[in-house]
Amino acid sequence: MMKQDESSAAKKRQCSCDDDPDRRVLRKITPLGEWPEISNPVQPTTIVAAIDCETTGFDPEEDAVIEMAVALIEVDATGCITRVLRKGCGTQDPGRPIPQRVTQITGITDADVAGKNFRREAFAEVLRQADVVLAHNSGFDRKFAERFLPDIENLAWACSLNDFDWIGAGFDGAKLGHLINQIGLFAPKAHSALADVEALVNLLAHRLPDGETVVGKVLEKAAKPTTMIEVINAYYGKRGEMKRRGFRWNPARNAWWVEVGQDKAGDETIWVEETMPNARLRISDITWHTRYQR
Q: Residues in domain Exonuclease (predicted)?
């Protein structure tokens, strides 16, 4: 009787919190294994591989992948995630101690990965089954995934961090955990690869005030071709103006760069030529097959 009374009281408190403008209830994200399946998805559907990599650092040339997870999901024409087709996670011994800071963030210890060997070909085959691979920071995950897994260099990629205007949509910041909280959810575990993929899928499924889903918006933007404009030998005094126009400095390529829609590429090119006639331009077309490789 006591347990029943406690349960009833808890439900009353929850309802009270839901109606209280000074309180906010966070609910646990839906586990991938419990994702509701929709039997009649609106065609056409898109197969998306949601991926996350945990690594020993930020440099794919020097650092190693220690954990990688993927969820293969089906997205219908309305942007609804209709099925989780499969999910998987693996760990890899990097052959050297994991930095303490990485262990503090991810919870992954040397003992967790000791002697572990990732099934790279099997994991790569899962990614090849997808129409597009999607991460919350594809500029990071793509570089590590392509270095770690065989024969995935020509896959299409989308990025939920950069292929959606979170601030414009009314969100405060764009970190995965913070976004999950802002849509009324919480992840019981963060920064393991599988936990982050689970959180990402829940975020992608969120339906926005205009009726569209996050994943629908992300895929729509990612699929559009763009133009990369790089400026070599840019005028030092034009740095501030270039930043205001969206240009960023890439030290690896020794150039200022901006990625714009193909309809705006002509205007940016003319501006550079008129304001910095001695600068050299490097222009390339970008698709979701080549985006986030650099």
A: 47-213
Q: Which tokens belong to 176?
A: 């995965």
| Segments in the chain forming alpha helices (H) | 2-19, 100-106, 110-113, 120-128, 138-148, 176-182, 193-204, 214-222, 239-244, 265-275
Reading the block at residue 247, the tokens are 């240009």
**Can you tell me the distance from the alpha carbon of 226 to that of 228, in angstroms, rounded to the nearest whole number?**
7
The residue among 239, 218, 191 whose CA lies nearest residue 46 is: 218
Between the alpha carbon of residue 64 and those of residues 58, 71, 75, 102, 118, the distances in Å are: 9, 21, 31, 12, 12
Decide: 107 and 122 in contact? Cβ < 8 Å.
Answer: no
Could you tell me where the DSSP H helices lie in 114-238? 120-128, 138-148, 176-182, 193-204, 214-222
- Distance separating alpha carbons of residues 72 and 59, to the nearest angstrom: 27
* CATH code where residue 276 lies: 3.30.70
pLDDT tens across 55-68, in order?
999 999 999 999 99
Domain count, the chain: 2
pTM, full prediction: 0.89
Percent of the chain with pLDDT over 90: 88
The reply to whether 68 and 192 lie within a common domain is yes
Residues 165 and 247 in one domain: no
Task: Judge if 250 and 190 occupy the same domain.
Answer: no
Question: Which one of 188, 206, 222 terminates a domain?
Answer: 222
- Residues 150-200 have pLDDT tens digits of 999 999 999 999 999 999 999 999 999 999 999 999 998 777 899 999 999
115 is a domain residue: yes
Q: Are residues 69 and 119 in the same domain?
A: yes
pLDDT tens across 71-106, in order? 999 999 999 999 999 999 999 999 999 999 999 999
Determine the average pLDDT of the residues in 241-259. Answer: 95
